[in-house]
Amino acid sequence: AEEVLWCKELKAALRGQGVPLPDSDFLLAQFAIISKGKTNEAVQRVQKYQSVVVGEYGYSTETAMQQAQGFLNKKWPSLVLPSKFVIDGHPTTCWDYAQFLPSKMQGESEWIALIQEWLLTMDASCADLDEVRAGATFVGLCRGLGWKNFNLEMEKRAAVIYQDSYPLRYHQFYMVDAGPILTAMMNICKVFLKEKLRKRMHTCKQKD
């Protein structure tokens, strides 16, 4: 009942401020639940989502599901590992960050394809309301990670989406077998990362 009230309040606030509604009741509920009933916070996130996710990247879940062609793994084989599973109630996905070679990017059209498919994997991490409530865990394999895998443009584009736009609760980030270079990368990205998110990022060994 509480979440239903949050949704009603959010919908009324969006209409009152002239903000386009999310394209489904499920997506509206995501925003309401992620914001825990803080309507103003939810409105700001919806505004950013409409501006960036929809406006800049033309994203919708329905269209992405119909048009997805495996761009990420065609461009960088084994970047996204076939692994959505649940750990302690949290949907978990795994990426091999060392496979991402940003030097292979060719123009804005490929940036859009990358972001759209990444957003689709985020949709898969909150496929029902139980998963929305629980929050997702992300595991990043970092063995062999180097400066060749780092791209500041990617960090800028991604940060505004995963921190301020997309309605996904991040439970934990695990960086597996990360060397000293990851610390340097994280220091560079501090300007983009909010403290709350940084506290959920952990390094560990694969044996752990």
- Count of all domains: 2
Count of individual beta strands: 5
Structural class: alpha/beta
Strand order, sheet with most strands: 1-2-3-4-5
Helix run count: 10
InterPro entries: CRAL-TRIO_dom (IPR001251), CRAL-TRIO_dom_sf (IPR036865)
Protein name: CRAL-TRIO domain-containing protein
Domain CRAL-TRIO: 89-207
Please explain how this structure is put together.
With 208 residues, this protein is an alpha/beta fold. It folds into 2 domains: 56 residues; 135 residues, 3-Layer(aba) Sandwich (Phosphatidylinositol Transfer Protein Sec14p), CATH 3.40.525.10. The chain is built from 10 helices and 5 strands, in the order H-H-H-H-H-E-E-H-H-E-H-E-H-H-E. The chain has a 5-stranded mixed beta sheet. The radius of gyration is 17 Å and the shape is globular.
Can you tag this structure with a few keywords?
single chain; 208 residues; alpha/beta; Phosphatidylinositol Transfer Protein Sec14p; five-stranded mixed beta sheet; 10 helices; globular; CRAL-TRIO_dom_sf; CRAL-TRIO domain-containing protein; CRAL-TRIO_dom
Provide a brief overview of the structure.
It comes from Eutreptiella gymnastica. The chain has helices spanning 2-17, 25-34, 39-56, 61-67, 71-75, 108-124, 129-134, 152-164, 180-189, 195-198; strands spanning 85-87, 90-96, 136-141, 170-176, 201-204. The chain is an alpha/beta fold and 208 residues long.
Q: Would you spell out the secondary-structure blueprint of this structure?
A:
Layout: H1 2-17, H2 25-34, H3 39-56, H4 61-67, H5 71-75, E1 85-87, E2 90-96, H6 108-124, H7 129-134, E3 136-141, H8 152-164, E4 170-176, H9 180-189, H10 195-198, E5 201-204
Helix pairs in contact: 1-2, 1-3
